[in-house]
């Protein structure tokens, strides 16, 4: 991979192909080529094309017509006009499976589990007008290749063209987990927002949607058998995700190569459950909140020492996890407030009667909630405190989300856990937006400063790790906590910024922000054209003149 | 005003009326009242109703039906259901001019000049079902009162109601200038974005649109007689504001009580003019840019010592200013880079042949550009450097925009200039969004941190000023520089945050962020319903529970 990365470092200095993430191996020529007006995408040697794959082909075909991405140069490609007009035409792209491939649907591959997926593909676009060919071992691989194919082209006065044929790509991800996390509890996001986000994720080959579905503020997911929680705990009867919504989101995601890893955060971040189940929540909405909740109001945590609450939680997690085909399920475990339990008479009584410390009770509680997942063949995922701060015997297969600081990665790896990068110091999308607590004139963001795309992009996933520890890194993600977000600003906060980690964890580290920026501008313009409100990263003057607005230009 | 402010400090602690900005005098009762299904707004004693005022009535009538703002309480008003159902109905609002008023159009009043406008109004909404009455001396006053009337109501299952009749308001602005600045050069905003922003501004009684129309990066305004500048200097032929667009924007604004103060920034911030007039620009796109431009690339400034360039600029300003009825016109004058002129042979030659220093040449240049404005009966507006850093003899009537720091206000006032607050330390909307220059992994915003609404709201407009100097304060504004903005994030960056200065400069200083927050939540929800993508300032849990998420709650 290092050799290939070096290889690309040179190639990527040529006028940008609008590809994101950077393929592992990309060679380009200098021959103009344009799409025929009758261009089509066909399958070869496949008896029964999975319907989700053929839907993806339809979408790609449409994008080729509607993207209309102009070259980001001052003349928007006009000086290439005669070269484009006289270029040979490409009339088709042919999709083939490699010999011996077992053809299943894209959706089933997307959810079949980390490390078992084959996303590799190979793409040839000849310069001579012969058909382009995309091959892969799986429908998922073909889907990734289709995504790349859709990024090879610019538009000039209605002609879809490249100046860089022939193009050859062989590609596969550096890491199996590339994610995006959305918090739908602090503020609610309609299903259409989530679907649009899934589309955007798929365009940059992100393959995991970490859905932080519920929290202390609201519980929008309608969990079968636990309907009362959302009935009393959603912001309104309209601000919910019904089982049908969940199914819709899961299948929409899977058809785009994305696995939905849901999170029911426990035992903290559960205040709102007190609305339907006051018996299970310690210190609900206790004030002053800062004494009972680590980060923000309202206070309230599951009574982890109560056998009844433990059973309730395990059953809730069992029911919630059965709504999702994913092998991954997060039980959270962050920011447990000790004082809340110290001041809760029932918890103190439960601990005394069982002769347990709070940490021992947390261990029992966690064993109970994780065993329902393990019994169902699923892998528990937790926030870093569960591995680093508490005395909990986690199953070896548990996956740890490192969020407080990327400097904690080594400690998690030293304990032998697989991990996902989610460091607030690199990957939090909500940082830098000012303080949101009331009555606070000079309040600032809890994780200042704003985390730029460059910051995420420059992250080294294996810093301070041994070679063996480095194998524990599954990948990473950018995250949007929604205290100051909702439908109105989801897109502009997330895009194109969240594409930074998509390339980092697909292409591998070491990318150069200098050569990445022009391609990321392309991503932003393409996203806008496709209905995702990505922001302008720079003045358009800069976007049209790669390098001219570099700090040292 | 102090007495009235105190008065409101108590009243505003009662369940919030969703009024923004806070009226100077507001009394409310505790009687429920709902709008009749046949509710109408009528005029009394007016022979010929100005068409822009009757259009405003139509818009208000529609908003009363479509706002559907639910009370921001956990039950969204449901507990008031029986009170609302049995409430008396209000069937009409009657608009009247005070005796002796001269009736002219809202639009003509909006543009007639600072300090000559009468925006005062008086509004009575009785509790007994009798008609509500709105009176004013001008169409502009009636328009402001209509805006307030539209904010008195919540929705419960289709019924538009208040729980606080009778309501009496007498109101007038504390400051004549409440503004919003938008930069349309770094990135282009379509006319529809500008119109939507004008609507939003009018909803919070902002009365000046400071249009930073052009800059070094692009020149989108098509100025009659100078069409070549935008032809070569707009980002594309589609990314322009034609004279018809300008006329449309100006009349749209005026019909909403807003005066458009355009800015053609000179002599700096003009690089792009070199595309059509290389003879007038020193150091165009010179590199390294940081040596030739103060803040960002591209470098390039008008050759201020050249008589030909001076004439060209004066004629350009004359032509541009004649597109706008406003009495205000900004010639900018910020961030002049001396090195650019030092290294420009022609400027050095011009200075030598005229025996002038650069500052003397700047004075001559400014006299020329300002005299065309003064001759046309307009008032020049400049950024603070022109008053504080340069040896320029500004006309006494010149208005100064204080931007570098609000600590510079006193110095401007000491020089006797009227001033507008635009301090980057309180009012810049773009701060805190990370560094945007390329090749810069740890780059940060040039004006970190993010400026929250609380920060702007808490500003004291007359700090460190004598009583006489305080009279020089015309008002203030929040500003959006568009290096990292465009259509995708205009609304969420600006709203509801830019409403903070709207209330500060309408209601006067001393407002309490604690009581303002619930009303600002109402503003945000109402804006979203009206199609402006205002953001969630807090988790919805907090929005529904005033005070519960205060830092000290």
From TrEMBL, chains A, B:
<keyword id="KW-0326">Glycosidase</keyword>
<feature type="domain" description="Beta-hexosaminidase eukaryotic type N-terminal">
    <location>
        <begin position="19"/>
        <end position="152"/>
    </location>
</feature>
<keyword id="KW-0378">Hydrolase</keyword>
<protein>
    <recommendedName>
        <fullName>Beta-hexosaminidase</fullName>
        <ecNumber>3.2.1.52</ecNumber>
    </recommendedName>
</protein>
<dbReference type="InterPro" id="IPR029018">
    <property type="entry name" value="Hex-like_dom2"/>
</dbReference>
<dbReference type="GO" id="GO:0004563">
    <property type="term" value="F:beta-N-acetylhexosaminidase activity"/>
</dbReference>
<feature type="signal peptide">
    <location>
        <begin position="1"/>
        <end position="18"/>
    </location>
</feature>
<dbReference type="GO" id="GO:0005975">
    <property type="term" value="P:carbohydrate metabolic process"/>
</dbReference>
<feature type="domain" description="Glycoside hydrolase family 20 catalytic">
    <location>
        <begin position="175"/>
        <end position="508"/>
    </location>
</feature>
<dbReference type="GO" id="GO:0016020">
    <property type="term" value="C:membrane"/>
</dbReference>
<comment type="similarity">
    <text>Belongs to the glycosyl hydrolase 20 family.</text>
</comment>
<dbReference type="GO" id="GO:0030203">
    <property type="term" value="P:glycosaminoglycan metabolic process"/>
</dbReference>
<dbReference type="InterPro" id="IPR025705">
    <property type="entry name" value="Beta_hexosaminidase_sua/sub"/>
</dbReference>
<dbReference type="Pfam" id="PF00728">
    <property type="entry name" value="Glyco_hydro_20"/>
</dbReference>
<keyword id="KW-0325">Glycoprotein</keyword>
<dbReference type="InterPro" id="IPR017853">
    <property type="entry name" value="GH"/>
</dbReference>
<dbReference type="InterPro" id="IPR015883">
    <property type="entry name" value="Glyco_hydro_20_cat"/>
</dbReference>
<dbReference type="InterPro" id="IPR029019">
    <property type="entry name" value="HEX_eukaryotic_N"/>
</dbReference>
<keyword id="KW-0732">Signal</keyword>
<dbReference type="Pfam" id="PF14845">
    <property type="entry name" value="Glycohydro_20b2"/>
</dbReference>
<feature type="active site" description="Proton donor">
    <location>
        <position position="335"/>
    </location>
</feature>
């Amino acid at each position: 991979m290092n050799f290939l990365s070096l290889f690309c470092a040179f190639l990527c200095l040529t006028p940008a192909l609008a590809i994101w993430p950077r393929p592992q191996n990309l060679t380009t020529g200098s021959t103009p080529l344009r799409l025929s007006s009758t261009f089509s995408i066909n399958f070869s040697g496949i008896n029964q094309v999975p319907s989700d794959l053929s839907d993806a082909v339809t979408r790609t075909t449409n994008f080729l017509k509607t993207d209309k991405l102009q070259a980001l140069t001052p003349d928007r490609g006009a000086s290439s006009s005669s070269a484009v007009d006289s270029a040979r035409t490409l009339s088709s792209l042919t999709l083939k499976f490699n010999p011996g491939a077992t053809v299943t649907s894209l959706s089933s591959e997307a959810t079949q589990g980390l490390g078992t997926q084959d996303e590799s593909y190979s793409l040839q676009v000849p310069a001579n007008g012969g058909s382009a060919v995309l091959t892969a071992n799986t429908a998922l691989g073909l889907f990734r290749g289709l995504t790349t194919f859709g990024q090879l082209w610019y538009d000039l006065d209605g002609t879809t063209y490249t100046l860089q044929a022939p193009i050859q790509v062989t590609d596969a991800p550096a890491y199996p987990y590339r994610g995006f996390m959305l918090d739908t509890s602090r503020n609610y996001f309609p299903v259409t927002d989530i679907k649009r986000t899934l589309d955007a994720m798929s365009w940059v080959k992100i393959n995991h949607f970490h859905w932080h579905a519920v929290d202390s503020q609201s519980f929008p997911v309608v969990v079968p058998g636990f309907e009362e929680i959302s009935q009393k705990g959603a912001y309104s009867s309209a601000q919910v995700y019904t089982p049908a919504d969940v199914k819709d989101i899961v299948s929409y995601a899977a058809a785009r190569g994305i696995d939905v890893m849901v999170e029911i955060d426990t035992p903290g971040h559960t205040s709102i459950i007190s609305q339907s189940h006051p018996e299970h929540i310690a210190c609900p909405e206790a004030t002053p909140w800062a004494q009972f909740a680590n980060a923000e109001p309202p206070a309230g945590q599951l009574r982890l020492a109560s056998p009844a609450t433990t059973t309730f939680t395990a059953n809730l997690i069992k029911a919630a996890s059965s709504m999702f085909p994913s092998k991954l399920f997060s039980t959270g475990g962050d920011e447990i407030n000790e004082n809340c339990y110290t001041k809760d008479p029932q918890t103190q009584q439960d601990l005394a009667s069982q002769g347990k410390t709070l940490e021992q009770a947390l261990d029992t509680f966690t064993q109970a909630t994780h065993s329902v997942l393990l019994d169902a063949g699923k892998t528990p995922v937790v926030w870093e405190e569960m591995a680093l701060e508490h005395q909990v015997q986690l199953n070896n297969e548990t996956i740890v989300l490192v969020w407080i600081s990327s400097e904690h990665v080594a400690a998690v790896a030293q304990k032998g856990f697989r991990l996902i990068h989610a460091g607030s110091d690199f990957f939090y999308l909500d940082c830098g937006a000012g303080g949101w607590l009331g009555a606070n004139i000079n309040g600032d963001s809890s994780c200042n400063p704003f985390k730029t795309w460059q910051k995420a992009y420059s992250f080294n996933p294996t810093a301070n790790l041994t070679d063996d520890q480095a194998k524990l890194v599954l990948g990473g993600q950018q995250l949007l906590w929604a205290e100051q977000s909702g439908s109105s600003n989801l897109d502009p906060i997330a895009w194109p910024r969240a594409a930074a980690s998509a390339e980092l964890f697909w292409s591998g580290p070491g990318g150069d922000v200098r050569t990445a920026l022009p391609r990321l501008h392309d991503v932003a313009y393409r996203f806008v054209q496709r209905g995702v409100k990505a922001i302008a990263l720079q003045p358009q003057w800069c976007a049209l003149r790669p390098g001219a607005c570099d700090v040292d230009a």
